Amino acid sequence: MVGKLIVVGTPIGNLGDMSDRMKETLSMVDFIAAEDTRVTVKLLNHLDIKKPMISYFEHNKNQKGEYICNRIMGGETCALVSDAGMPAISDPGQELVSQCAERGIEVTVIPGPCAFVSALAVSGLNSGRFTFEGFLSVTKKNRFTHLNSLKHEERTIIFYEAPHKFLRTIKDLFEVLGDRKIAIVRELTKVHEEVVRTTLKEAIEKYTKSPIKGEIVLIIEGYKNNKKEQYTLNEAVCIASGLIEKGYTILEASKIVAKDTGIRKSDIYKGLTEI
Ligand code: SAM
Q1: What pLDDT is recorded for position 228?
Q2: Mutation test residue for ligand 1: of 8, 12, 117, 212, the one with most atoms within 8 Å of CB
Q3: Domain count of the chain?
Q4: Would residue 108 count as lying in a domain?
Q5: What is the pTM of this model?
Q6: How far apart are CA 96 and CA 275, in angstroms?
Q7: 124 and 109 in one domain?
Q8: Whether residues 55 and 87 fall in one domain
Q9: pLDDT, position 115
Q10: Theoretical Cys-Cys bridge with 248: which of 59, 177, 243, 257, CB 3.0 to 4.6 Å?
């Protein structure tokens, strides 16, 4: 019988966030594929679980993915974990899940904390529509290509960032996106958890004076298209004529169209009466 792959979320800072299902799963699987076995062994020691582990990380994922799939095809059950949070989210795992799916291996999930989802939830910014952008590239060209592609993005924008790159990142964000609201969400679930709701401009001032520490998620408000479409007087008069045909009086039509187009009511009225 074929085994299965179980994608297991682990805490992002607070061991109290471990679920019963997570603990049960880690103790019942045949082996664990871990991003860094030295990190995962600490979690297992805390839970008093002893399990064979193999490392599965960015640079061995092709060769190890094949090996893990073969073991699962041979009947074993594997838990996939990363150092913290959900595997496959800015962490190794996505390729292994694809490889398993291609071979018809069952893949299930034990959901755990995810830094960006938790950060978005406490940011106070629009969480209805958002785009998760992972880490920005360190190379200038790729970084700016990425940022420029988001210039007119109307959804809330989310990045992961490391403290030593943070100041450069908010300066680059300000340069490309202009001043925007930003929530800087730091050290979630840990002693120094903090949410700073500010603007990019104010953030640059603040963090130039006192550098940031810890793990960070950036939540940035989307592009706001405040400019009204530009109408000519002729176009406004045409729209108003349409309303009059539908039964509105000249005055009513002038009022409505003035509000919608930003053109003066008296000009539209004059235009209508001079036709
Ligand atoms: N897979 C993880 C997840 O689902 O949350 C993310 C892994 S990614 C390699 C690590 C990044 O996640 C950090 O650089 C930081 O941006 C963010 N992060 C992880 N833990 C965090 C925490 N406790 N508070 C704020 N951000 C965190």
Answers
A1: 58
A2: 12
A3: 3
A4: yes
A5: 0.84
A6: 70
A7: no
A8: yes
A9: 98
A10: 243
Say yes or no: 165 and 202 in one domain. yes
Q: Are residues 86 and 33 in the same domain?
A: yes
Beta strands in the chain (DSSP E): 4-8, 31-34, 53-55, 78-81, 106-110, 130-135, 156-161, 181-186, 194-199, 216-220
- The CA-based angle 128-183-195, given to 5 degrees, is 115
Residues spanned by the domain of 78: 4-113
Quick one: 142 and 49 in the same domain?
Answer: no
Task: Please give the average per-residue pLDDT across 249-269, as a whole number.
Answer: 92
Domain termination residue (choose one: 89, 113, 137) = 113
- Residue 4 makes CB contacts below 8 A (sequence gap 6+) with 72, 77, 78, 105, 106, 107, 108
Mean pLDDT across the stretch 59-88?
A: 97
Whole-number Å distance, alpha carbon 23 to ligand 1 midpoint, is 21
Q: How would residue 151 be classed by pLDDT, with cut points 50, 70 and 90?
A: very high
102 and 12 fall within a common domain: yes
Task: List pocket residues of ligand 1, CB cut-off 6 Å.
Answer: 12-13, 82, 84-86, 89-91, 114-115, 160-162, 185-190, 215-217
pLDDT at res. 1: 85
pLDDT mean across residues, the chain: 96
Tell me, yes or no, whether 151 lies in a domain.
yes
- Count CB-CB contacts under 10 A for residue 178: 11
Residue 123 is predicted with a pLDDT of 98
Residue in 10, 17, 36, 160 to alter for ligand 1 test, most ligand atoms within 8 A of Cβ: 160
